[in-house]
Amino acid sequence: MSNLLQVMNEWLEGGVAMGGQLVVAVASNDILPADAYLPDTSAKAGTWFLSPEQHFVELVAFSAVYLAVVAWGCSRIGKKAVGPRLKPVHGAVRLACAGTGLLLFAILVRTVGWKMAKGSLAFLLQPCHIFSLVLVIVLMAPRSSLGVVLFNMHLFVQWAPWMALLMPDLRTYTPGSLELYSFFVQHIIIAGAPLVLMVTGIIPVLPRRGAWMAFGFGWWAMYQVWVLGFGSLLTGVNLNYMLAPPPVIESTSIRAIADHALYYRWFTQVATSIFAAVTGIALPALLAPRRRWRKRSRPHMKAA
Question: Would the pTM of this model clear 0.90, i.e. be above it?
Answer without folding.
Answer: no
